[in-house]
Structure formats: structure tokens, C-alpha cells
Please model this.
Amino acid sequence: MRIFYAVQATGNGHISRAMEILPALSQYGEVDVFLSGSNATLKADLPVIMRSKGISLHYTSKGKINFLKTALNIDPMHVLKYAKGLPLKQYDLVLNDFESITSLACKWQRVPSVHFGHQASFASAKTPRPRHKNFMGEAILKYYASGTVSVGLHFAPYDQYILPPVIKTEIRNAQPTKQDFICVYLPSCSDEMLFPYLSQIKDCSFHVFSRQTTYITTKQNCTFFPVDKALFNLNLTHCQGIITNAGFETPAEAMALNKKILAIPIGGQYEQQCNAAALANLGVLTLNKIDLHFTEKVRQWLDLPDTVYDHSFSRSTAHIIEEMMQIAAKEQVFTSQSHQLLFE
Model:
């Protein structure tokens, strides 16, 4: 079987998940990856056959979406060219992790697909939302990328076809400890913005993973690390807790390691506001933004007891991929020939 796997490369989370999924997915056939996006910092160790700058989100130094820069970097002719040129009919299964060009191409070429990933969970109205829904945010989640069937990943089974988070093998097999430092991963915030707040908490050490840093450097109680998969996994495994955006992969891994979490959604990113609502329901402290009171709020968070997480929803990556493939077969997303070969 030939599998076309479209991966969103805005940020590092989708790429990290794809690298974890690939070995399990490859058990079902030959996988070709289409990578779309231009502002990830993690090296994609994937069988990429095509790459596009896609439609990438850009951020201000204060952690908010830069709508003007995002809009100026959209090239409609580029998007249309790729959507028409993707050879989707050569594949037995199209798997789409929140990638808009592939979603458009499937509609034009009348090729069925599985929308698979965290954003696919928002196809269900039962998936947590913030108290005040955002019309534009809901529209992006609904129309930016879609598929014949949506198989979501989330913190809890809010509805059918919502599976557990994919946790990297090295995190799943780790032996966590709680050493005397806090891990900080806020890639949408600059070092210059964070340091004045964190440096005031002199009795606590912070390990800050930064897009701006190319080598490890220490300034007072803050050590700045470049974004590196192995370094980050090591620090996450042995930290007392983590301060991070309200994304999906990092909070999920922190919960798998039983780490205390302080989550801050990126300004203007509705999906993260939804994640923050879900995390708050699970007992995680969330902040709406970083403001003048941030230092005091971090101090208060440090004094809170550790959160106890429910791990009953946890499954191996191979099990998650197996369930996704079974759903794809049930919803008749495969070609008839590949379906017969896979399940006979």
C-alpha cells in the first residue's frame, strides 16, 4: 500500500509527532511525506518527497500571532499550483495532519482522506472550548483542513474517533526525576521578554529553550538552550515542572511524565485557548497571557501541589495507528484493493 502523509510544519509539534508515527505507519505500506510550512526549527527526519512553504503562522516577539506577516506570506498562486499538482490518485490512503493544500487538493481531485491529528478532534462539538467561542477561530478549525473522516488526538476521549496523544518513545520509556529546575518552552516569546520576569525569582533555576539561542548560555538564574530534541527531552524528563504554551504535544508529554504544568495560550490562537480550557478541566493552571503580574503568578504556581493525571487513556503509538487504520477502513477511505490487502 502507498500512503501519502501530509504534515503541517508551522511549529515543531506536527513534525515531532510525524517522526514518532512514521515507524508504526510504515508497517502498513510505503509512506511518502508532504511537508508544508516554513517556520519550524526542528529537523524533519522524514521521507519528504515534496515540500511547500504552505500557509505558515508567524508571531510577534510578545507571543501573539502576527496576522499582517502571516497574510503577507500567503501566496495564493503557490497554493493553487501545489493543490493541482499533488499526485494523490497514485496513493491508496491520504493522511492529512492539518495541512490546507492537501485538503484542497483532495476536494478538487475527489480523493478521500483521513484528517488525523489534534486539530481533527475539533470536528466534534464535545471537544472543550473556552467560555467565549471565537467565530474566526472556529472557522479556521473547521475549514483550514478537513477530510472524509476526522480521527482526532486529545487529552481525553471526548467523543468517538478521538484517540490518546502520541507520546514519543523516548518520553514513554523515560525514568523521570524531579531535579531543581523549571523547564521553559515558550517559542513564540523572545528571550528579552521572558528574562526580566524569570530573573526576579532568584531561588529558582529556569532552563529556557529558545529559538534565538544557538548554544547553551547562562544569565543569572536562567540557562538558555537551543531548540534541540534530545536536549529538550532530557530537560523535560528531569525538571520539576514546565512553563509552556497551551499547545498539544508538549503538555501531553509533560502529563505522561507527571510534571507540573503552567500553560499560556498564544495570543490570538484560538486552538490554544481551547487546549487551555481542556487543561484547566484536568487541573492544570493556565494563564490568559504574560502580563506585569507574571512573576508573581509563577511564584504562586511553584507553591502549588503537583497535579495528579489520569493515565487510563494512554496507549502505544502502534496501537493508536492501528485504531486509526481500522477507522479508515470502516469509513471506506481506502481504495477497495488496498482495503482487501490490508485486512484479508
In short: The chain has two domains: 2-167+314-343, 169-303.
